[in-house]
Design goal:
By secondary structure, the chain is an alpha+beta fold. Helix content is 39%, strand content 22%. It is built from eleven helices and eleven strands. Strands 1, 5, 6, 7, 8, 9, 10 and 11 form an eight-stranded mixed β-sheet that branches. Strands 2-4-3 form a three-stranded antiparallel β-sheet. The longest helix is centred in the N-terminal third of the chain and has 40 residues. The termini are far apart. The protein binds ligand 2U9. The site of ligand 2U9 has 21 residues, from helix 7, strand 6, strand 10 and strand 11.
């Protein structure tokens, strides 16, 4: 049998295969189950031992050379296919890059950042704490012992889990437990604000079950209402970027402050709309007061040595007043159209020098 001629023929047909599909057809024709070289291998079985000894190595050599030729041609065809693709596909680096969708800073975050910046300038640090609280830090330490009627003012979300004293854990109803924790951990003197989420089981056009507060606490020697009024005036002038902000303090009641005051801010009517500044009318803005002696003691300090003032303000309300949104519920719908309209650039970080009031 002329294996050399069979080999020559196979080599030239493999070399002539123009694509991977044609090459696969050849592989099956030579080496497949019914392939011609496979058939040659089968003839070995019917040969005499001498014949097998002389024919066997030739047929094996033929099989190996065809296998190698197939592999080489396959590599060459694949290489050519890749070259063709590289030739055809080009990246034009002069084209503008596709626009990346960019998120925005929520007005609530923006206002908390602005207030943090303004208070930092007055020497206040930002304090944080857990949103899941125990009864003592959220109520008792703030002069709201069990059965205190003021507890009813907070529609509290309770957990089935209980604390070490057997009282139900809860979602904090104000950020005040943060100040209690900070007093205990850091002692006095203290100047802090506590911005964050708080929770009350309340839901209508002007109340959401989760909302945001910034509370502030100053503890030092000889602190009085004058310090409170100056601080609030200074902060609100910086926040609303108006020098004509006027405050009015009205007596009120909170269990954690004594005396307690409700703070109104003066507004002016411009084309029938209320604009903060001046004193044509008044609107309630925040609550505050001198820290109750019992609360100072709960914070681990001697109320005969240390005095303090505290305040609390709703961030959502402040954001609405400053940036002109009128529906509180839209704040937490997550509607991208609302967010991109009212949101702020993440690159536009509020600073006192750059302005804390620059709208996006
Ligand atoms: C400590 C001592 C005193 C925080 C205070 C208010 C008055 C207040 C409300 C404003 C609008 C809550 O978001 S709101 O509904 N807050 O009126 N908050 S004094 O007093 C404290 C806090 C912590 C240790």
């Amino acid at each position: 049998m002329d294996h050399a001629a069979t080999g020559q023929d196979a080599q030239s047909r493999i070399a002539a295969a123009l694509d991977l599909e044609a090459l696969e057809t050849l592989r099956i024709a030579f080496l497949g189950k019914q392939g011609s070289i496979s058939a040659l291998l089968k003839t070995l079985g019917g040969m005499s031992p001498e014949q097998r000894q002389s024919e066997g190595p030739k047929i094996q050599a033929l099989r190996e050379s065809v296998t190698m030729a197939l592999a080489e041609r396959k590599a060459a065809l694949e290489g050519a296919a890749l070259d063709a693709r590289l030739d055809a596909e080009r990246i034009d680096l002069s084209l503008p890059a596709p626009e990346t969708p960019r998120g925005s800073v929520h007005p609530v975050s923006q206002v908390m950042d602005e207030l943090s910046e303004i208070f930092a300038d007055l020497g206040f640090a930002v304090a944080t704490g857990p949103e899941i609280e125990d009864d003592w830090h959220n109520f008792t330490a703030l002069n709201m012992p069990e059965s205190h009627p003021a507890r009813a003012m907070h529609d509290t979300f309770y957990f089935p889990d209980r604390d070490a004293e057997g009282r139900a854990m809860l979602l904090r109803t104000h950020t005040s437990p943060v100040q209690i924790r900070t007093m205990i951990a850091q002692g006095a003197p203290l100047r802090i604000i506590a911005p964050g989420r708080v929770y009350r089981s309340d839901s209508d056009a002007t109340h959401t079950p989760m909302f945001h507060q910034v509370e502030g606490l100053v503890i030092d020697k000889g602190i009085h209402l004058g310090h409170l009024k100056w601080t609030l005036e200074t902060v609100l002038k910086a926040f609303f970027e108006r020098e004509d902000i006027v405050l009015r303090l009205r007596p009120s009641y909170f269990p954690f402050t004594e005396p307690s005051v409700e703070v109104d801010v003066g507004f002016t009517l411009v084309n029938g709309k209320r604009v903060l500044g001046g004193q044509e009318g008044w609107m309630e803005l925040l609550g505050s007061g001198m820290v109750n002696r019992k609360v100072i003691a709960a914070g681990g300090l001697d109320p005969d040595v240390w005095q303090g003032f505290a305040f609390g303000v709703g961030v959502d309300r402040l954001a609405m007043l400053k940036y002109g949104m009128d529906d509180l519920r839209a704040f937490f719908d997550g509607d991208v159209r609302w967010l991109s309209h009212y949101g702020f650039s993440a690159l536009d970080v509020p600073t006192l020098s750059g302005g804390v009031g620059t709208a996006a």
